[in-house]
Amino acid sequence: MALLHVQRSETEADSIGCVEVLATVCSIVLMVLTLPISLFLCFKVVQEYERAVIFRLGRLRSGGARGPGVFFVLPCIDNYCKVDLRTVSFDVPPQEVLTRDSVTVSVDAVVYYRIRDPLNAVVQVANYSHSTRLLAATTLRNVLGTRNLSELLTEREAISHSMQVTLDEATDPWGVQVERVEIKDVSLPDSLQRSMAAEAEAAREARAKVIAAEGEMKSSRALKEASDIMCESPAALQLRYLQTLSSIAGEKNSTIVFPLPIELIGPLMNFTSTLGVQRTTAPAHVPVVRGGPSTTTSTSSPQGDPDHQPPLERQHQQRCTLRYRDSGAAGDRKKAGPSVVGSASSYSVSSAEDSALCSPTNRLARFILDL
């Protein structure tokens, strides 16, 4: 049976060869009879970026693709097909893809390819361009289905390379070479976009707080070092003091800052406290009233003498009016007018102004003025 099959194949080849030879002779005769019109039908031109695949009586001619330049065909028996060798690009329509972590995204891409073998591109596939487009869409869904969302957003280059290798292996029998694949856009659902935006905002705020805390820590350390240096050198402290006064004086304001060392204020405060103790323990002039308003005797001490009292005490006695509170002699004293009687424990200030002038603060101020 095998021998019979081989003999039949040889017989068919011989018959086809005879028919081809007869058709070729007839075509040549016709071309000669129709000269010079047949010259326009016999000679064809192929560009540098093109190749021509010639079929004679339906069979691929030996010698491969023709071009670039001029090639010869016989009318009526030869047929040819031009193939463009330049790189062609096309967009892959957006594909709804379910990622590995069950997130639905819409992804589109762009594919760049060219014809590597013109013979296979014509013989092995009916429409290499359409077939490559369909295969690219399928490969895009298959590759992205094995990745999670984070990889899809951060590893686009690796995903594109994986798609390019897969497509190139699938289209190699067709004579098509896939040169490059690029992912154009990844569309996420609105709810997922809002959640990712909130997460990114929280991360940015956290980083900002960390940076602010580090800045405060550095500034605190620098301030501490500066204060330690100034404490070690009193001259530097005084220089800083003068610089501050100079900056304040440069401003347009009516406030005058007068530096007063605490060493001068301390003795004044101690002296004021001493005066307050003496005022409480040793009363000054204590008048005593015996009988009626006309008979009045008084006892005095060296401290109660106005001539021996300090200036602040004299001002105090001049501004403070002392009244004697005795219910038995109230009527007679009203007729005779006010009299200065009483004891140190029954002093009272006659007005709000006298009370303000008798305060420790005013006493200190008046003492400084007297000095």
From TrEMBL:
TM annotation in the entry: 21-41
Superkingdom field: Eukaryota
Keyword Lyase: no
Disordered: annotated segments: 283-345
Coiled coil: none
Biased composition (Basic and acidic residues): 305-316, 323-335
GO annotations of cellular component type: plasma membrane
Primary residence: membrane
One Pfam family cited in the UniProt record for this chain: Band_7
Protein's UniProt keywords contain Isomerase: no
Membrane topology term: Single-pass membrane protein
Domain Band: 41-200
Alphabetized SMART domains for the sequence: PHB
Keywords: Membrane, Transmembrane, Transmembrane helix
Compartmental location: Membrane
Family label: Belongs to the band 7/mec-2 family.
The protein, known as: Band 7 domain-containing protein
Species annotation: Anopheles dirus
Upper lineage: Eukaryota, Metazoa, Ecdysozoa, Arthropoda, Hexapoda
